[in-house]
Amino acid sequence: MNLILSAIVSIALGFAAVSAASQEKKLTPVSYTLNWYPQAEHGGLYHAKATGIFEKYGLDVTLRPGGPQVNVHQLLAAGQTDFIMGTAMRTLNAQAQGVPIVTVFAVFQKDPQTLVTHAGVGHDKLQDLKGKPIRLPAIARTNYWPWLKSKFGFTDEQIRGFEPGYAALGSDKMLSQQGFVTNDAWNARKVGLNLHSLLLADYGWANYATTIDVTEKTLKERPEVVRAFVRASREGWAGYLANPAAAHAAIKKDNPQMELDLMEFSHGEMKRLGLIDSGDAAGGRIGIMTDERWERFTKEMQAAGALPVNLDWKKAYSLAFVKDR
User: Which of 146, 178, 210, 280 has the fewest CB atoms within 10 Å, measured from its CB?
Assistant: First the structure.
């Protein structure tokens, strides 16, 4: 009887192992390419990966780092990644160039983009920077700069060459530069400067940021995968806002140069400023987008000359997945 019982147990364990392997095989492999090296601004995705949320939705997700030499839109268009992290403006630009990319989810309701200037020198509002020198990277010229020119009368003569870091600001108190609200104050403290961040979103910049973008082909052929990825991402971002510890540990593993103190600061700024869960996203509607905001933003950028007036902007996004709860 003991031999029989032992055989039964062995068979049962064998079936359990086969069943587990079968379940593992059912996970759909997908890749998501980040817009930069792993950091707190990617926290929701790392939370979903670290805590098994992606697997819960049937996905085996690989998070790929971005960086200054990585053209995520080119990778997506070429079919070398399934999803990318983008922005509404980048997607509209892609559509204007005939590249069939679609935004299906928007994490940051407030784009964290800022202009950083010296405190106490009269640069208290965005309009105070008119005519003053501003250090900008090249990508700003096709992003928010046309909007600043149109709305506040900024001119190209103000642009100065851009270098990472804020140390150069110390040589000229009239100088400002592009920043990111989730790390501006931390970086300023590190270089010993008293700087002030002007969040463009507070002045009407309606760009959705940290988006989930796919190709029209993926949207048409694999909507169930898109839906699963959106649902898992929403749950991941909600979990990250509540407790960032697991995500920060995973980010640190993928990017050893990232400082825990900076990640904790960035997480705090996201919550303090409501970058993710304010406005239309209040009440647990993380990732939400609206037709009205897409239309308003597109028309503002068309008026600024940054987008063609005949652009079929409705092809740049889909609300089907953010409305699907």
Answer: 280
| Token output for 84 | 């990318």
Region of 103 please: left (phi>0), alpha (psi -120 to 50) or beta: beta
* CA-only gyration radius of the chain, Å: 22
Q: At CA 63, angle to CA 103 and CA 138, rounded to 5? A: 60
Separation CA 146–CA 157 (nearest Å):
13
Q: Are 206 and 293 in contact (CB under 8 A)?
A: yes
Domain count, the chain: 2
pLDDT tens string 115-154: 999 999 999 999 999 999 999 999 999 999 999 999 999 9
pLDDT of residue 25: 63
Buried b (16+ CB within 10 A) or exposed e, 138-155: eebeebbbbbbbebeebe
Angle at Cα 180 formed by Cα 189 and Cα 30, nearest 5°? 125
62 occurs within a structural domain = yes
Phi-psi region of 67 (alpha: psi -120 to 50; beta: other; left: phi over 0): left
Query: Are residues 214 and 132 located together in one domain of the fold?
Result: no
**Based on the domain organization, do 145 and 288 belong to the same domain?**
no
pLDDT averaged over every residue in the chain = 92
Give the 3-state secondary structure of residue 303: helix
Structural domain boundaries enclosing 168: 113-203
